[in-house]
Amino acid sequence: MNDVEVLTPWHRIRAHWSAPTWLRTAHVVTGVPIALAALAVILGLVAASVVLVWTLVVPVVALSLLTWAVPLFTRLQRARFQAFLGVEIPRLPRPQGTRNPLGRLVRAARTGNTWRQLAYHLLAPLIGLVGFLGVVTAWAACLVAIGAAVHLWRVGGAWYAALPAGVALALLVAVPWVTRGITALDVIAAEALLGPNTSDLLAQRVESLRESRAEVVDAADAERRRLERDLHDGAQQRLVSLAMNLGMARATLTDLPDPAREVLVNAHEEAKQALKELRDLVRGLHPAVLNDQGLDAALSGVAARAPFPVRLNVDVPERASPTVEAVAFFVVSEALTNIAKHARASRAEVVVRHRDGSLRLSVHDDGRGGARLNGGTGLRGLAQRVGSVDGTLDIDSPAGGPTTITVELPCE
Q: What gap in Å lies between CA 402 and CA 249, rounded to an integer?
């Protein structure tokens, strides 16, 4: 989504200032029938709703038709501004749809944009009629003055035609300014009532930022998966081969001098330690089992590696997006690591549920408690990672324990 640019009505008025006078005149003239048709439909449907309110059905049908007719006339007016003046009035945010007519009616009634559109369609006939009369009167007076000047010139000569000719010239200069003034007033009203207001623009901006952030998070997660594959298929395999060769040399070359054998043993141990650290790094970037077998299998591996008993309960009938699964995995992994380092717990429990469009997980331990978001970088990092996907994190950790970390991640 492109960034939303907030412009004042005057900036948008200037967009049509260079339009030819005949286009501005056509804009004024065509606005009258559209405005009168919209007024007739709106008043007719409202009148039917009021008169037949006792039937209950007619008001619902009539007002439902009104919620369909108002946006239709708004699109016609928006097309008129674009065609004749070159002014593009931004589209209004589309409300969330529902198949229930009564629900659509209630939603439309609660939306300020509906009332602003109604206000324009009730105001447009007044602007249109005043503009029509002003423009037509100005053009008619100009044509009359020109005709009078030509007639007097033929009858009495140039001196007799001077006055009406001057009036005709003045009207030729004034008519474009009259049309500009009327169309400028129409643009101001349409921009204020048919276009998005400040709240709509801010909502669009927030939505744009949310989508941009989601793209950045997805790109970062994809990059972590790529690094994991490269390290797993490249450097890790080379280290495995190196450690195997050193192990075979250590087992077979038993007649080496002690200094050489000591170097070989140290090299073998260093290779195994480097392989272990690389495996931990690869697992920390993005575990391959998470992509292949899902969250249950990945969390089972984390629970099995914990230095204390972990009871794991995962109920995820449908897999979430890879980004959400990665966040859930790292939350549980980091939480168990923090428990091992700081909580002095004898056991822990991890529960994961996928319900109502959300992935809910909780990590509970029987440690000493006292965990706080501002107590260290670990929990702050969890909160930041959860917030990157619009999730929520809650910590219940009184002094003396126990501690429960609850996380909810949206899965739409």
A: 51
